[in-house]
Amino acid sequence: MELHLEEIRKTIARSSDPDTLRGLRDQIHEKLLAQPLDAFPGDWNDWINTVHDALIQFAVKKAEDNLQQAGLGTPPLPYAFVLFGSGGRREQTLWSDQDSGLIYEEPEAFMKEAVDAFFKRLGSEIVKVLFQLGYPPCEGDVMSSNPAWTQSADNWYATINAWLDEPNWENIRYILIIADSRCISGDQRLGESLKRLVLDRVASDRRLLVHMLRNTLRRKISLGVLGNLIPERFGEDMGGIDIKYGAYIPLVNGIRLLAISHGISLSNTLDRLAVMEEQKAEDPEAIKQWRQAVLTVLKLRSLTTSKLEDGFYQSGGILPGSKLTKERKNELKFALKVGQKLHKYVEKEMQDEEI
Questions:
Q1: Contact at 8 Å (CB) between 321 and 191?
Q2: Long-range contacts of 202-207 (CB under 8 A, 24+ apart)
Q3: Of 105-109, 222-226, 255-259, where does mean pLDDT reach its minimum?
Q4: What is the domain count for the chain?
Q5: Last residue of a domain, which of 205, 234, 251?
Q6: CA nearest to 90, candidates 164, 9, 183, 169
Q7: Is 190 helix (H, G, I), strand (E, B) or coil?
Q8: What's the CATH code of the domain at 132?
Q9: What would the pLDDT profile of 55-94 be if each residue is shown by its tens digit?
Q10: How far is CA 84 from CA 30, 130, 275, in A?
Q11: Which of 135, 160, 239, 355 could cross-link 130 (Cys pair, CB 3.0–4.6 Å)?
């Protein structure tokens, strides 16, 4: 098959069968893995996420159709289906899992029970269709099938306010998940309202940034004291480098915290940097380096090992030593050094908020 994005999108839009689209996704996966990254036309990350978006939007529509065919009718109120994690940031790889939630307009009291039941059923049905399309479930159960992540607007706002009123490590982890959310289907206003609430609360109480800092710095940049790469020492990944947790996650977490501190609602990492640059919120040279580091780790993340396990594509985020050319090692070292400076800078900036 040829990798023509517009044709793939049209195929997904015309389809009504998840199994057929799972087959299409497998073909895309195999084709992309066989093609050298440097030979790929255009932006790899944007291309992959455009396909993911089309498949996930199909899943939402298919789930609605399934409920209607089951005699449950159509959605009784406007709602938004939102993605979290790399999906929310529009930075998914070929093998990303599910991270999702659902928010629906607050129903009147007399219809609340029926509306709650409908959307909980819809949230579970969307997860079921995504499962058919080859998206493995989130290990932390952050999915719309979990009632904690499918709520009415008022319940969502009460939940978020409660998390922020008691900013312990776990509650702040949930808040940072919300900060990376993106509405992919439905009412954009509802989808954006969750992030807006978080940003408004931070604007009124800057000390919350200090609590977020602790979560942000949990994942350390994987670079030795002498500026050397730290390879995996044991197992099948021995000699490889942890790109996901040693480079990618620390970088995007640091930039996310800066974005929150500046009231930026966009969730994509590069978009966040673009707004900082436009608003002159950070030093232009620093932004330039952060952008280059992010682009580097996004590229290297797409080269990490993956495997088919229990019918799902999965990856530990390890770049094998065989793919660590001299040029890639130098690129990675640069990105990691930039990441270390970013973490030190963020730590200083956020601790100043405590004064």
A1: no
A2: 202/260, 202/261, 202/263, 203/263, 205/164, 206/261, 206/353, 207/353, 207/354
A3: 222-226
A4: 2
A5: 205
A6: 183
A7: helix
A8: 3.30.460.10
A9: 999 999 999 999 999 999 999 999 999 999 999 999 999 8
A10: 26, 15, 20
A11: 135
